[in-house]
Amino acid sequence: MNQNNIWEKIDFTEQPDESAYDLLAPQAELLSKLTEGVLKMELYAIDSVLGQEPPIPVAVYSLYVVAPHLGNFKRKIIAVLEGRHTGRFPVDIYCEIDQIKDEGIEKDNFVEKVTEIMSREAVKRTIENLYRQSREHLRSLSNKQKPIA
């Protein structure tokens, strides 16, 4: 009996393509180091569907900046939409702060585009304010703990 291989076109190598998530994830440790833990980054991945006709399945990667000393307050900065029908790239990046959507971002300029988004005035101001508010809160806590002479 001649058996056909229905799997012949599938790549079973162990080197997966890097996703936008893979490129963003190392930034969490970097933000924590740069701010001495005053700010942290959280990255969430969920499956979703874009509500258009026909519906488009996507992976959504949401990047949050978190202020642990402000009750773990989280500010969503960007959402990256990776169309499962197109593979890992291109992706669309939606900035939650200034509500600008950048479409069709390829892998080779993804990090550069995210850096440019983080440099936008409204985004910079939002993250800097979280940092300053957190530092001020830490200072006020340390002042409360000092004994009165």
How would you explain this protein's 3D organization?
With 149 residues, this protein is α+β, with helices and mostly antiparallel strands. It has one domain (20-140). Helices cover 32% and strands 30% of the residues. It contains four helices and five strands; from the N terminus they run ααβββββαα. It has helices at residues 20-24, 27-34, 110-119, 121-145; strands spanning 40-50, 56-67, 73-83, 91-95, 101-105. The protein has a five-stranded antiparallel sheet. The mean pLDDT is 92.
Short description:
This is DUF2487 family protein. 32% of the residues lie in helices and 30% in strands.
Report the portion of residues in β strands.
25-35%
Measure the end-to-end span. Answer: 94 Å
Radius of gyration: 21 Å
- What ranges have pLDDT less than 50 throughout 5 or more consecutive residues? none
Give the mean pLDDT. 92
Number of helices: 4
What sort of overall outline do the alpha carbons produce when their principal axes are compared? elongated
Helix coverage percent? 25-40%
How many domain modules?
A: 1
Secondary-structure element series = HHEEEEEHH
What brief labels describe this structure?
alpha+beta; single chain; 149 residues
Which helices and strands occur, and which strands form pairs?
Blueprint: H1 20-24, H2 27-34, E1 40-50, E2 56-67, E3 73-83, E4 91-95, E5 101-105, H3 110-119, H4 121-145
Antiparallel strand pairs: 1-2, 2-3, 3-4, 4-5
